[in-house]
Amino acid sequence: MASTASTLSWSSSSWLQSFCGTINETTTKFSDRRTSMVILAQKKAKKTRTIILKEDVADLGKQGQLLNVKAGFYRNYLLPMGKAQIVTPVLLKEMKIEEERIEAEKKRVKDEAQQLALIFETVGAFKVKRKGGKGKQIFGSVTAQDLVDIIKAQLQRDVDKRIVSLPEIRETGEYIAELKLHPEVTARVRVNVFAN
């Protein structure tokens, strides 16, 4: 048994020597030719996909948003649920056209609101009649619905009472009401309250 182990170690060492000798000979051959081999480590490629969301996804983004997500998340969750789509040049072009259309619509709505605000502000004061009490006091108060009814009677315009902001009116006098027609457009209207 001992002789077998020594034979194995001798044969493996001779094999190693013959192998190393071959390597040394190879490197000398390369050095004679003055050629060097450079081995670069390759980085693991990031597997991401550029997608567009078809609907709002919690903790990810809103509808129409462009995102880079991992390929597995897209393949295993977003695609089967129908929540996202891979971005293509055709899709990008369609998105750009849709965004331009939406921007034009927003601008048109804002312009209409500005024109309506100009109409409200040039009318002058809206007059509200209330039954009078002692001094300047009136019975009840003037509400947003009262102002909406007066605007409809005088200008034939439908206004939602939720956009009307009135101070508390319990006396006769002149007050300023605000009509929030658009997030960026607010019309200031004068309201004259008098007792009859």
From TrEMBL:
<dbReference type="InterPro" id="IPR036791">
    <property type="entry name" value="Ribosomal_bL9_C_sf"/>
</dbReference>
<dbReference type="GO" id="GO:0009507">
    <property type="term" value="C:chloroplast"/>
</dbReference>
<dbReference type="InterPro" id="IPR000244">
    <property type="entry name" value="Ribosomal_bL9"/>
</dbReference>
<keyword id="KW-0694">RNA-binding</keyword>
<keyword id="KW-0150">Chloroplast</keyword>
<dbReference type="GO" id="GO:1990904">
    <property type="term" value="C:ribonucleoprotein complex"/>
</dbReference>
<comment type="function">
    <text>Binds to the 23S rRNA.</text>
</comment>
<dbReference type="InterPro" id="IPR036935">
    <property type="entry name" value="Ribosomal_bL9_N_sf"/>
</dbReference>
<keyword id="KW-0687">Ribonucleoprotein</keyword>
<keyword id="KW-0809">Transit peptide</keyword>
<keyword id="KW-0689">Ribosomal protein</keyword>
<dbReference type="Pfam" id="PF03948">
    <property type="entry name" value="Ribosomal_L9_C"/>
</dbReference>
<feature type="coiled-coil region">
    <location>
        <begin position="92"/>
        <end position="119"/>
    </location>
</feature>
<dbReference type="GO" id="GO:0019843">
    <property type="term" value="F:rRNA binding"/>
</dbReference>
<keyword id="KW-0699">rRNA-binding</keyword>
<dbReference type="GO" id="GO:0005840">
    <property type="term" value="C:ribosome"/>
</dbReference>
<dbReference type="InterPro" id="IPR020070">
    <property type="entry name" value="Ribosomal_bL9_N"/>
</dbReference>
<dbReference type="GO" id="GO:0003735">
    <property type="term" value="F:structural constituent of ribosome"/>
</dbReference>
<dbReference type="GO" id="GO:0006412">
    <property type="term" value="P:translation"/>
</dbReference>
<protein>
    <recommendedName>
        <fullName>Large ribosomal subunit protein bL9c</fullName>
    </recommendedName>
</protein>
<comment type="similarity">
    <text>Belongs to the bacterial ribosomal protein bL9 family.</text>
</comment>
<dbReference type="Pfam" id="PF01281">
    <property type="entry name" value="Ribosomal_L9_N"/>
</dbReference>
<dbReference type="InterPro" id="IPR009027">
    <property type="entry name" value="Ribosomal_bL9/RNase_H1_N"/>
</dbReference>
<keyword id="KW-0175">Coiled coil</keyword>
<keyword id="KW-0934">Plastid</keyword>
<dbReference type="InterPro" id="IPR020069">
    <property type="entry name" value="Ribosomal_bL9_C"/>
</dbReference>
<feature type="domain" description="Ribosomal protein L9">
    <location>
        <begin position="61"/>
        <end position="88"/>
    </location>
</feature>
<dbReference type="InterPro" id="IPR020594">
    <property type="entry name" value="Ribosomal_bL9_bac/chp"/>
</dbReference>
